Amino acid sequence: MSAVASVARSLTGIGVGRGGAVAPLAFVRPAVAAPVDELPADGDAARLHEAFATVAADLRERATAASGSLAEVLSATALMAADRALISDAAKRVESGTGPATAVAEAVAGFATMFEAAGGYLAERVTDLHSVRDRVIALLLGAPAPGLVLEGRSVVAARDLSPADTATLDLELVAAIVTELGGPTGHTAIVAGQLGIPCIVRATGVLDVAPGTLVAVDAGAGTLTVDPDDALVAAIEARAAREAMLASDTAPGATKDGHAVPLLANIGSAEDAARATAAHAEGVGLFRTEVLFLDAQEAPTVERQAHDYRSAIEALGDRKVVVRTLDAGADKPLAFATQPDEENPALGVRGFRLARTIPEVVDTQLRALGEVSTPSTWVMAPMIATPAEARDFASRARAAGATTVGVMVEVPAAALRAEAILREVDFVSLGTNDLAQYTMATDRLRGELSDLLDPWQPAVLDLVRATASAGRTAGKPVGVCGESASDPVMALVLVGLGITSLSMSPGALPAVRFSIRSHTLAECEAIAAVALGADHAAHARAAALASMDAAARETLGL
Fold first, then answer.
1. Among this protein's residues, is 187 annotated catalytic?
2. One-letter-per-residue 3-state SS of 365-412
3. Which one of 130, 199, 481, 519 is the catalytic residue?
4. Which of 132, 270, 288, 426 would be a feasible disulfide site paired with 312, CB 3.0-4.6 Å?
């Protein structure tokens, strides 16, 4: 046992997914810092501009090679590396006599402070901003960029992991990912979930463990164990066998007594659509369309968009595809549509609110979707707060050729007015990540507040119940496409509340399918009732877990 292990054999963080892994620990190579008292030299300004351009081009290339959430965040990071304001700030420092690496560090520090003060999505992007800094400085100094070349199957550990860091890894050799920072809805967690990699974030102390030490990662419990004993290794191997067994069941989602609950996948590209099909998803409950926009220097044409959408829709055959229109704005900058600076981007012009400032972007996307729409293609808008906004979107979408139109319920106001909103549209879909953020007034970056972001919070469950009830009254579908749908315990509560479909990362489908098929609809309703009666999130999940079928709980390793 290592010296560190004798002090802390087990570390605890926030787990992402249910998987586990046992492998040696490997650390991502740290970034090189700007030299102390760096001296300026002739040509520094030109070298600085060239370094930023090179990093931006490399990130764009990696984004093209990636897919889904990873491609999305790499594209957005590439835009950061090409940001004229950031480059101009660094260049002015060079012109005043500061060395180029120091100038980059100082400029990024200023922007990072602004991002953190803005909170929300921009605060989450500080890691990506630092990734740009580290790569530009490495180029300027002729040093290796941050990253890691794996020589064998390993648990990858880092203070935090940027999308660019992830893109340099041989994912076939990544047994698990563990970071000291981050949160359950940050990019590391999202990418790990998309790829089915066990992950723990906010695992304080992992960087104190010696590299090469054998560790066991249990994402379900949120624990990392140093030098695991044979019993723990056997338990994790047994869990892997159970997961493989669950994956062999490819039947449609339904309760034990035959109540249908379609199980869908969240995707971001045609490649993701193929993976969803391979995982036996019954369709797609959330097709994110941001990738095409975030990597564009000018607004994509109807033809370009239609081509990309058609590829994903055709990959899914006649399965249902719910396409979410562009969820971007001041908090996810578009290179071709500059928005005014906002003090709080999370509460600003994002999602369908773009129709207020750049309506042509919204209408162009809807025309493209109208051209490729099939009877199984549904279209929905994000960030709807009022029935009037739902009516406006539905009118635009139907005029463009969409036949089934819905909206996201991510804002408490939309949940409270769900009956009125459902009079305007054909369906709604709950985005429980943002719904929790806005309900609990909690920045998703603040890991120390992660308990408030818990979808088991009674206030969040109340809003889900209200929305599902409105759907029953209207006789219209109410789905969930947030991360809560991937929890096999929460899935029972959602079904019991009246949710009609669940959409998740493909890797979560087998456990959720098994959990639902092990309970009747009446049992799901009873489990939902005990969860709703709890006084806080931890009690709600514990009560639901205790009410589950014991054999199902044992099979799932809960």
1. yes
2. HHHHHHHHCCCCEEEEECCCCCHHHHHHHHHHHHHCCCCEEEEEECCH
3. 481
4. 270
